Amino acid sequence: MDYNQVLENAKQNMGGRCMVCKECNGLACRGLLPGPGGKGSGSSFIRNFQKLQELKINMDLVYPKSHIDTQVEIVGKTFKYPFFAAPISAVKLHYPGYYDDEGYSKAVVNGCKVSGVIGFTGDGEHKECYTMGISAVEAAGGWGIPTIKPWGVEDVITKIKMAEEVGAPAVAMDIDAAGLPVMAKDKNIGAKSVEDLRRIVQSTKLPFILKGVMTARSAEKALEAGVYGIIVSNHGGRVLDHTPATVEVLPDIVKAVGGKMKILLDGGIRSGLDVFKVLALGADGVLIGRPYAIAAYGGGEEGVAIYTERVGAELRQTMIMTGCQSLCEIDSSALWNF
Ligand SMILES: Cc1cc2nc3c(=O)[nH]c(=O)nc-3n(C[C@H](O)[C@H](O)[C@H](O)COP(=O)(O)O)c2cc1C
Predict the structure, then answer these.
(1) What's the gap in Å between 267 CA and the centre of ligand 1?
(2) Tens of pLDDT along 147-164?
(3) Mean pLDDT, rounded, for 290-300
(4) Measured at the alpha carbon of residue 86, what is the angle toward residues 85 and 89, in degrees to the nearest 5?
(5) What is the pLDDT of residues 169-183, one digit of tens each?
(6) Which domain holds residue 125?
(7) Residue 164: inside a domain, yes or no?
(8) CA of 119 to the centre of ligand 1 (A)
(9) How far is the CA of 86 from the centre of ligand 1 (A)?
(10) What's the gap in Å between 122 CA and the centre of ligand 1?
């Protein structure tokens, strides 16, 4: 199988909701939620993509050639590349037909595992969304990071225990989930105080990652609560219309908490060039959402591995073309006019 075949298969398997566009830019699926679209006008999803495209990269080929190292260390593990599959759940609702959450999560976590990266799993309105992801992580020998919705603190702690039991190396929470139309109805879902977060963090030895941070102020509060890392994310534009792009808010967040906690980012990342740009802005790593869904629907585990290697090869090539031989050499001097 090659990547074109993966895309062709995905068109058949994604239930017509995702059109597997040539560019996954949020235009054709504006407002399609349930489905893969961004909320409302879709502007937050579209802007994530566009602002990344506007960043341009400086070439530098005058340097002593040596080995290119794309490895990164996060949550106490070394990964082949600094990008990971983002949590995607309630797949029967968003892409009707082909997979349930367990089948989808298995394709993603196993495909990531064979290619040296890791997949996050999700949570949702129905408890099976979480437990099916947990089963996939268990079947992969603990190789996956469960991501919990911001339920009441005790419920979050119960779900963290389930992640511990299956040997996950870390656990995450998408604190922005109250903005999802299906979750907004649930009164148990919502914001957490610094004290709430601290209780959650202290309930486990696992590194705790907070997903859905979009300002330096929120990042500082997460740091105060003791979280291991944050994911700068607007949920792929699915929780609030008219947000800035994640790459637009990243520099302020890096200024506030960079070096003090791990900073990951998602939203609109499609290629190794995009991964490079986000690292140049100061992130430690990135998550990729919809393209991994397309890869899983188009080729299962193998599709996920094919997409991972494609993005990895693009990242490596970008490093060669910019004179960055390891990830720590990638900084803002690699971005044009920045
Ligand atoms: C269909 C769908 C389902 C998602 N489900 C979850 C989820 O269960 N938990 C979560 O934290 N994020 C979820 N997300 C958001 C992604 O994890 C990620 O933040 C977003 O897709 C990144 O943007 P990108 O798709 O442009 O890469 C979902 C996204 C989509 C498209």
Answers:
(1) 9
(2) 999 999 999 999 999 999
(3) 98
(4) 115
(5) 999 999 999 999 888
(6) 72-334
(7) yes
(8) 12
(9) 6
(10) 8
Q: Is residue 26 a part of any domain in this protein?
A: no
Quick one: pLDDT band at residue 261, thresholds 50, 70, 90?
Answer: very high
Number of domains the chain is built from: 1
Enter the pTM of the model: 0.98
Closest of 239, 248, 188 to residue 215, by C-alpha: 248
pLDDT band for position 325 (cuts 50, 70, 90): very high
The response to whether residue 275 sits with its C-beta less than 6 Å from ligand 1 reads no
Two tokens, residue 285: 């790593």
Q: pLDDT at position 185, please?
A: 81
CATH code of the domain covering residue 113 = 3.20.20.70
**Structure token digits, residue 303:** 């599709």
CA gap 210, 230 in Å, rounded: 5
Residue 108 structure tokens: 């993603």
- Pairing mode, if any, of strands 208-213 and 229-232? parallel
Q: Pocket of ligand 1, candidates 235, 265, 274: which has the most ligand atoms within 8 Å of its Cβ, to mutate?
A: 235
For helices 272-280 and 290-322, the axis angle rounded to 10 degrees is 70
Going by alpha carbons, the residue nearest to atom 27 of ligand 1 is 289
Q: Which residue's CA lies nearest to atom 15 of ligand 1?
A: 235
Name the residue with the closest Cα to ligand 1, atom 3.
Answer: 88
- Tell me, in angstroms, the distance from the centre of ligand 1 to residue 234's CA: 9
Asked whether residue 16 is domain-assigned, the answer is no
Average pLDDT, the chain: 97
Atom of ligand 1 nearest to the CA of 49: 26
